[in-house]
Design brief:
Blueprint (H helix, E strand, L loop, with lengths): L1 H7 L9 E4 L4 H12 L2 E4 L2 E6 L2 E10 L5 E2 L1 H7 L7 H19 L11 E5 L7 H11 L5 E8 L12 E6 L19 H11 L9
Parallel strand pairs: 1-2, 1-6, 6-7, 7-8
Antiparallel strand pairs: 3-4, 4-5
C-alpha cells in the first residue's frame, strides 16, 4: 500500500515538498513517498490521547509543543470530557517530550514556512492525530498542506484540516487501521530510526 500511496502524490515543478511522517506507523509509508518525489524527509511528532480502557482508540491528540486537540463526536459518544482526560493528556505530553528528545535531540523541528508539506500516516480512524499535526503545522505557515495515507474511515479525511487529502481506500466496513494490513506489528523507536536512515544519512539520526 505504501507504494500505491506514493504513486498518488504528484510531483511538482520547483522546490521539492517537505514530507513529514507521523511516527511510528507513518514512517515506512513516508519513506517511499519522499523517495518517489525526491523530497526531504522528516517527522512531525504527535501523541494520541486514547479513550480510557481503549487506548488505541484516539479521542484526542497533541503535536510537538501544541495544545491538545479532541474529537468532539467521540467524546460525546463515549461520555467523556476534556477535564476527565487531563491525566491522559499529561501522560502523553511526557511521552511526547521523550520522543522529541529521542528522535530529534537538540535539532530544531523542520521548518515548513513557505513550503508545500506532505504529511503521511498509515491510516485514519477518527483522524484526530492527523488533525493535531496539521493544525500545528498550519501555525508555521506552509504554502500548502497535503495529507497522504493508504486507508481512512469513511469521511475521516474531511475534518483534518489539509488542503488536499490523498486516501486510497475508505472501506465501509472500517473498524481500525490495523484491520486493513496483513502485517500491523507495532514499530519501535529503533525501527523508526532505521527507516529514516534508509532514506538519507544525517547526523540527526546517527546519535547513540
Amino acid at each position: 500500500m505504501a507504494e500505491a500511496v506514493a504513486a498518488q502524490v504528484p510531483k511538482h515543478p520547483g522546490p521539492a515538498p517537505l514530507v513529514l511522517a507521523l511516527p511510528r506507523g507513518g514512517v515506512p509509508v513516508a519513506v517511499r513517498v519522499a523517495a518517489r518525489i525526491g523530497a526531504e524527509l522528516d517527522i512531525v511528532l504527535v501523541r494520541k490521547i486514547g479513550a480510557p480502557g481503549h487506548e488505541e482508540y484516539g479521542v484526542g491528540a497533541m503535536a510537538e509543543d501544541g495544545p491538545p486537540v479532541f474529537d468532539e463526536p467521540s467524546l460525546l459518544r463515549l461520555g467523556l470530557t476534556t477535564e476527565g482526560l487531563a491525566e491522559a493528556v499529561d501522560r502523553q505530553r511526557v511521552e511526547l517530550g521523550r520522543r522529541v528528545r529521542k528522535y530529534r535531540g537538540t535539532q530544531p523541528p523542520p521548518d515548513p514556512a513557505g513550503r508545500e508539506v506532505v504529511v503521511v500516516d498509515d491510516g485514519l480512524a477518527t483522524g484526530v492525530t492527523a488533525r493535531a499535526a496539521l493544525q500545528w503545522l498550519r501555525g508555521h505557515h506552509p504554502v500548502r498542506l497535503v495529507l497522504a495515507t493508504p486507508v481512512c474511515a469513511p469521511g475521516a479525511g474531511l475534518s483534518v484540516g489539509a488542503d488536499t487529502v490523498i486516501c486510497l481506500s475508505e472501506p465501509p466496513g472500517f473498524r481500525s487501521v490495523g484491520q486493513w494490513y496483513e502485517n500491523f506489528e507495532q514499530l519501535t523507536d529503533a525501527d523508526v530510526e532505521r527507516w529514516l536512515r534508509s532514506h538519507v544519512s544525517d547526523d540527526m539520526y546517527e546519535r547513540t
